[in-house]
Amino acid sequence: MTSIELNAIGCIATPFKEKFGIPRQSGLCLKATGVIELAANQDSRDGIMGLEVGSSIWLIFQFNGVAECSTKYSVRPPRLGGQKKAGVWATRSPHRPNRLGLSLVALEKIENSKEGIKLHVRGVDLLDGTPILDIKPYLAYADRCDSTSPSWLAEQQFKKIEKISFSDAANEELKAAGEDFKILLEELLEHDPRPAHQRELDKEFSFQLADYDISFRPSSDGLEVTQLKNLNC
Amino acid sequence: MTSIELNAIGCIATPFKEKFGIPRQSGLCLKATGVIELAANQDSRDGIMGLEVGSSIWLIFQFNGVAECSTKYSVRPPRLGGQKKAGVWATRSPHRPNRLGLSLVALEKIENSKEGIKLHVRGVDLLDGTPILDIKPYLAYADRCDSTSPSWLAEQQFKKIEKISFSDAANEELKAAGEDFKILLEELLEHDPRPAHQRELDKEFSFQLADYDISFRPSSDGLEVTQLKNLNC
After folding, report:
1. Contacts of A89 in chain B (CB under 8 A)
2. A10-143 is a CATH 2.40.30.70 domain
3. Which of A34, B90, B134, B208 could form a disulfide with A100 if both were Cys (CB 3.0 to 4.6 A apart)?
């Protein structure tokens, strides 16, 4: 088969420092923002001409932190509770040949200065440091279709966690982290980042989000954030 | 910047033997069909499990027949009549860094036999022989958005050619080519494949479509197919 060599056109910075906690698709968490940094040269300046703040753009990227040897042709999608199998071409699993990802994000701001060119986007589901291979405008007349999602997805409800609560200690830390960070954290936890087979356990989970170590555990009516720890302090 | 090596997962056969005449996006010409041939092995058999006939799939591919050195960061999109400029990231031009393409096609039939695995798709805009890098299911909850197309596209009307007619000689050849081929040809010509700056000329154009050499020219109320020549005869 044909072998092809590509070069990243830029790199995205996001609050997602590890795979745990990343939204399972783009557009699900609107407070999840990222900054794409393009090469600081005239080509990039020419290339962004006509990109419109407020429009949506496709990002084609290579999944970061996914080993080539981890490709699985038969996968167990989280949406199916990790039980049933599906073929990799019928899923958006990152453990796929070529490890290409496709995400639709909203363009919020364009910075074009001597220091560099930065595209601020919203609704991201990319690991911090992911190499970006292409940016394309969303074209409603070609990209929008009446297809629903595959029927195997419909079998599984998109059940959101009903209540996200915060311990007193976590609330104290959140004052410094800010309201946007709190909303982002709530959005992420509502989608339940826990592996499907561990959702019944009374177990604490921890993950890094931006500069914070987050711990959470099941509560009587949802999930409770027990601790936030600022890693820079 | 990061360098990345990819391998084609398959190759698509389409009626488009040259760039002239290819629909300017996927989904525009529903009679434009293609057949993706995947490697005839167990991995491919596992990978297609759960793909559903009647659903839509994304193809990520590398534009075929586009030289790496032809990358233009500032392009003149055909939709703007070839006059105004736009940055490559604001367009779907094939002359882009990494030459990646993204097309949404309808999956019509899956052939899974000892000889190989073939996915029959509809609405293609890919050159014959294009290497396919990834196949993903269309996910309505992540891929559909309310964004319209970029406003610079809205400036240009999507004017279709009003009438496609056929000379007596062309009509005679079409009897052998079949009704589907005629409809495909009509669809393609309705979208006017001529370069914007040559649309006012009283000039004949020729291009290859499947096994036919097609010639057409302006008529009083549209375009007339003057000749079809079966290249296998």
Report:
1. 47-48, 51, 57, 135-137
2. yes
3. B134
Q: How confident is the model at residue B155 (pLDDT cuts 50, 70, 90)?
A: low
- A27 token code pair: 């557009």
CA–CA distances in Å: residue A39 to residues A7, A8, A116, B70: 12, 10, 7, 19
Q: Where in chain B is the domain with CATH 2.40.30.70?
A: 10-139
Least confident of A82-86, A182-186, B22-26: A82-86
Comparing CB atoms, the residue among A6, A25, A147 nearest residue B98 is A6
| Run of H or E including A222 | strand A222-230
Q: For domain A163-230, say whether CATH 3.30.2310 is its number.
A: yes
- Spell out which residues of chain A touch residue B73, defining contact as CB-CB under 8 Å: 42-44, 46-47
Paired tokens of B108: 């019509």
pTM of the model as a whole:
0.94
Q: Which CATH architecture has domain B10-139?
A: Beta Barrel (2.40)
- Residues on chain A touching B41 (C-beta within 8 angstroms): none
